Amino acid sequence: MADDGLRFPTSLGTSDETQIRLLGQDLAADLMGKVGFGELAYWLVAGRRPTPGETRVFEAVLVALADHGFTPTAIAARLTYLSAPDSLQGALAAGLLGGGSRFLGVTEDCGRFLHEALAGVSGEIDYDELALRVVKSATGRIPGLGHPVHKKLDPRTPVLFQIAEQEGLKGPHLRLFEAIGRVHPQVLGKTLPLNGAGVCGAALADLGLPIDILRGFALLARAAGLLGHLAEERRNPIGMDVYMTVDRNAVYDS
Amino acid sequence: MADDGLRFPTSLGTSDETQIRLLGQDLAADLMGKVGFGELAYWLVAGRRPTPGETRVFEAVLVALADHGFTPTAIAARLTYLSAPDSLQGALAAGLLGGGSRFLGVTEDCGRFLHEALAGVSGEIDYDELALRVVKSATGRIPGLGHPVHKKLDPRTPVLFQIAEQEGLKGPHLRLFEAIGRVHPQVLGKTLPLNGAGVCGAALADLGLPIDILRGFALLARAAGLLGHLAEERRNPIGMDVYMTVDRNAVYDS
Amino acid sequence: MADDGLRFPTSLGTSDETQIRLLGQDLAADLMGKVGFGELAYWLVAGRRPTPGETRVFEAVLVALADHGFTPTAIAARLTYLSAPDSLQGALAAGLLGGGSRFLGVTEDCGRFLHEALAGVSGEIDYDELALRVVKSATGRIPGLGHPVHKKLDPRTPVLFQIAEQEGLKGPHLRLFEAIGRVHPQVLGKTLPLNGAGVCGAALADLGLPIDILRGFALLARAAGLLGHLAEERRNPIGMDVYMTVDRNAVYDS
Amino acid sequence: MADDGLRFPTSLGTSDETQIRLLGQDLAADLMGKVGFGELAYWLVAGRRPTPGETRVFEAVLVALADHGFTPTAIAARLTYLSAPDSLQGALAAGLLGGGSRFLGVTEDCGRFLHEALAGVSGEIDYDELALRVVKSATGRIPGLGHPVHKKLDPRTPVLFQIAEQEGLKGPHLRLFEAIGRVHPQVLGKTLPLNGAGVCGAALADLGLPIDILRGFALLARAAGLLGHLAEERRNPIGMDVYMTVDRNAVYDS
């Protein structure tokens, strides 16, 4: 064989004539009908099967992030579908490409912020003290704090804390995030809500998922939401109206 | 208000200062921790909550389609990540963009093929007779028939039939697909396996999901698989080796 | 060497320690400062260097297709940039993904339509007769005919005909397209303008460029227009206003 | 009119029934056949028409960046085309999505690095002194320095310096870059070449183009190169061989 010596290792999927293996399991015999889709997504990224409690917290995060109505990403996906209805994958991809630093990035940013704050801390942690230190030394905005619409309380936040608590999965990231919620008014002089994207990042970090991939879960969740938008765009389109509204009100600015 | 008269209707998500509504439900109170992610994806597209049986069949389909190892889409996602590691969304989008007619399109094509074959058929259906008619009149390849690797049997196919049967959801699309499996040798003169992508399309069509969006479920499933590849690419990269293998063996062809 | 036997041929670019070769030329010595960008794009796709006349027609096409104001693709690119300003490539890609069948596809569709009409025709062609036959036998809309805004005359059309004429490059595709403009009222009972995207497709086909890649030139042209939009979005943003206009006028539709 | 009050300003394109205006010009009468495509791209981004000398430098940059053979982005585009040949825009977009920090980002990074080094410097500049200061205080790698293949000299670098010199456009960014080439061995203890992507960034910055959009020109250039790859993939495909090479050498790694 000409190219032996080449090796491309993977611990995800392989197949031969009679079997498809995924994550070391027999896909057809062991996984289909036996693991949920969220559970499999967790397993694929983390490389280990989650417990039922971990799956519940994880799926609650995905549900929380799936759709926020007419976000820029949902509008972009619908406009792309209007332009190129033959390529559903293109419309979905266009929507996901908005999943960057500003709108979908908070989940990752918050998880990373908390992770870095906790790095090097050992022994029993006084979360309020650590939170105070973290808020005082923050140079920019603290990720996960504040929301343009939910100015007092983001309704997702207490619910996700509660679910994590129920499942025994309220770990250091969620605890530190909660403490930031308690102490930041002392430093900032105003009270901001802990937002839903941020608490999701904290919860994912407590699940032990890799920090650099956290944005990916927001994208996976949003993929479901965008499919909902594209299905709705087929039934009850708004893309042409958005386009016409902008085009009709274009003003030439020399 | 200057722009009243404009109306952008949606039945997905909306929010105000205290509540986030999704699909007519209170996201925090009614959905988080209470519905699974696959269940929500179905609901978002179909506009109705699936039953537990429907959810099980649907998640089995997503699990079946999530990853097939080093497909062209997985390799493209990894190479994009190698080139632009700062943009996880770009690598994921690049992978999904391969979800077109050839590799991921079979699910949609098969669902549509069966749907069109069943359109206009009424009364009790003799599936073998209908299948024979359909196979005889097919102009090109029959979607869902044959597989480059699983030449005799695609192991996903009998399992998905069985799950649908268990849940009382083996409807006309799956029955017709099964009948095509039985009768096509009479017409084609050779026996081909019913492939996994095809049976997934038949099962999704039997779930009443919109035919034009079927490809979207393959994309959603693949989004999870691609995240697995990108997480693995971080831990144990192969992208640079793929690039070097190609570049080192480039031959200038005048 | 482990993987000899592998060969990946290309006639585009290769490089070694001292030289970069592109299209059989020395990139630094023969191309930089000596060929224009449009000329190079033509050469890359066609595999041969265009004449000055071909370059002029080709660049006129790219100029004609570069921007049409606030198209759905331009709006999608701007919304993606709003959401993910850290990834210019993502915003550009999102805009290009709208380059499908409906908005940017006319160039390719028209080129292909004319190409197929001319296939098999030999000897001296009576263009009006052929056009009449083609218009009568067309099953759907004739690509390149009609425009939502330029209801009488698309101003690009006569100019591109004139440029092609000046350069001696008005070939069978442009002639047949022109004839369709003359004869279609007899068949359709109304007079529609030959649109700019269509005439561009005819001109590209007359340049001998591969029909299956024609859409690519519309995409290349649009890439420049989208960069203009993204640069303007930085200076004078409208993305947030578009988003707010849609979001503020969202109506929950149960 | 219901939505007056809405205003979406643009200085790019607008059209009415009889005219298409772009950049304040009549597209058909003033631009088509009269401006080159590179010239228009510059104008679209900079908001002013370039001089012939500026156009020559600019097009030399685009030509230099158009293609580098089987890069990860070219391979990703070809694999995407293999998977979804019905969507040329998807394959092009997938290729461009690799235009991030690592492979295509050097142009932008180098332009920005030089721009920041020059900010606040006034009066006559001693470029060697400034370069020395800049190299000494650099925390990470200096963008534009070094190349994996052209270990001694990147052949594009002297040619672009020469073209800029010829056109009277060798400004402070190119001069500082050149000085970095002279002085860095004193600090780093080894001599690295000034690479082509870096000199392109310096030249674009000297043209007064917006620093935050520099990556965009690398993307535009690469769009032409990727179209070349996709046209070649149609004529003489390698995508399936790349896929098979990887898949055949996949090793399950538990």
Automatic annotation (TrEMBL), chains A, B, C, D:
Keyword annotations from UniProtKB, A to Z: Lyase, Transferase
Gene Ontology cellular component terms for the protein in this record: cytosol
SUPFAM superfamilies the record matches: Citrate synthase
EC id: 2.3.3.16
Pathway(s) the chain acts in: Carbohydrate metabolism; tricarboxylic acid cycle
InterPro entries, per database record: Citrate_synth-like_lrg_a-sub, Citrate_synth-like_sm_a-sub, Citrate_synthase, Citrate_synthase_sf
Gene Ontology molecular function, alphabetical: citrate synthase activity; lyase activity
Gene Ontology biological process terms from the UniProt entry: carbohydrate metabolic process; tricarboxylic acid cycle
Pfam family, one: Citrate_synt
Listed PANTHER family: CITRATE SYNTHASE, CITRATE SYNTHASE, PEROXISOMAL
Family membership noted in the UniProt record: Belongs to the citrate synthase family.
Protein name: citrate synthase (unknown stereospecificity)
